[in-house]
Amino acid sequence: MVILVYHRFSDRVADSMTVRTQTFEAQLRLLKEHRYQVVPLRAVLAWLEEPSAVLPAKVAVLTADDGHRSVYDVLFPIARRDRLPVTLFIYPSAISNANYALSWEQVSVLAQSGLFDIQSHTYWHPNFRHERKRRSQSDYARFVRQQLEMSRERIEAHTRQPVDLLAWPFGIYDEQLMALATQERYIAALSLDARPVRRGVSPLALPRFLIVEATGTKGFAPLISDAAVRKLP
Ligand SMILES: [Zn+2]
Questions:
Q1: What number is the average pLDDT over the span 47-67?
Q2: Measured between alpha carbons, how far is 158 from 44 in angstroms, rounded to an integer?
Q3: How far is the CA of 16 from the centre of ligand 1 (A)?
Q4: CATH for 2-230, among 3.20.20.370, 3.30.460.10, 3.40.50.150, 1.20.1250.20?
Q5: How far apart are CA 26 and CA 9, in angstroms?
Q6: Domain ranges of the chain
Q7: What residues form DSSP beta bridges with 68?
Q8: Less crowded by CB within 10 Å, the N or C end of the chain?
Q9: Closest among 74, 80, 68 to 113, alpha carbons compared
Q10: Pair 99, 71: CB distance under 8 Å
Q11: Range with the lowest mean pLDDT among 15-19, 135-139, 158-162, 188-192?
Q12: How far is the CA of 128 from the centre of ligand 1 (A)?
């Protein structure tokens, strides 16, 4: 099974993290052709937690990081049309603030659609590696916990739904960060380690494939090929 992460969508490519709408549609068609089921992230978490649980081998999870406006304008109509569950990771400092970001009103609409699970990407998307270098040990731990706590509280206040999933900013994580996330009551956290999900993986370091425009269909097909599925245990 694979977890995919997108950031932005547009008819034209504005930057490397933007996937053209037609590229995304072509990738969805590939998933269908390969008989993949798109399931909520929480279905995979339940499977990881319960050794006897069964999920089809051809399962894909859609996630989107950062809360760009195009999640509302482009991804939301497609998700509604195809009934696709999406987990959206946002950092509240940008919402209703940065000009590229969603508004809290849009976040609420997404949450109420029943298709989007709105979760945490920390409060302001810091680079924890840099922060650890420039802070004392105790200050650093306090800073990380604040980032995780403020994000959860702010999102829960707007969506009125529990926040217990985290996407590591820049995919940066380590043992200490995982322990701090557990202390802040996160049950799962996602990285950018480009691997399929296998049994035995730590739920606090779930790998995801970062999808960019250059991935196209040529780079996408190998991720979901029969060969990729056969390699799974
Ligand atoms: Zn991010």
A1: 94
A2: 26
A3: 13
A4: 3.20.20.370
A5: 13
A6: 2-230
A7: 101
A8: C
A9: 80
A10: no
A11: 15-19
A12: 12
